[in-house]
Amino acid sequence: EPTVRTELMEQIPPIAIFLQESRPKFPTAFFEYLMPIVVRYLTDVNNQVRKAGQEALLILLEQDLVAQSDIENKVCPILLDLSAPDSDDEYKVEAVNIICKMASMLSRTTVEHMLLPRFCELCSDGKLFQVRKICAANFGDICNAVGQEATERLLIPKFFELCSDSVWGMRKACAECFMAVSYTTSPEVRRSKLSPLFISLISDTCRWVRQAAFQSLGPFISTFANPSSAGLYIREDGTLSIRPSAQDVNSNPCQPSNNITVMASGANS
Q: Which residue has the higher pLDDT, 209 or 268?
């Protein structure tokens, strides 16, 4: 029964945490018994079971309970199969979503070598706009996961494609994550490539795209600032924070600091 498999999936994370805490007594139980179930349920015929499996997998990755070898040899190959061009539409959309969510939890090497090529393919998926929409919404997170070199070499050309997509929702999603993409690039790329691209979004024919671009204008401008003088920095949770200067703090030590936080990730906007 699908409901039984769904309930089972919801119990996997707490069991895995218990096994991790009791590892001397159960050194291989998780890898031998639980991990194969999680991987198998990613391709279950029932939609609800698959979603429960995906949620369980993300929790296990957040808790750092999945071995790197299992990620590369078991999880990634399944997701690459599900997101292949000839894959079922529903499976493909789910796989893209899980790939984007996983990226921030995996090592840069794993993301760049195993998942990035497929992500770039999916950005140009001409069959399903839902796939491109997920890619656009999570573009900043992927850039942050792979770093500046891979972003400028592989992702920026795809970002240009998405920013000129015929579906306005795609362009709006790009506008929302523009600051996160810009932060990952060099000052020269910001000036020569991203600035003209941003102007095209702020002049878009769709008012929803223009509105999203104007809302991202301040955060985008902030990526041009010198962090040492402006006090701007990106926190680990993907937010842009403005640290008050030492002079302001010293002038009124009893006054609480007035940090301003702006969401950097399109997914969190």
A: 209
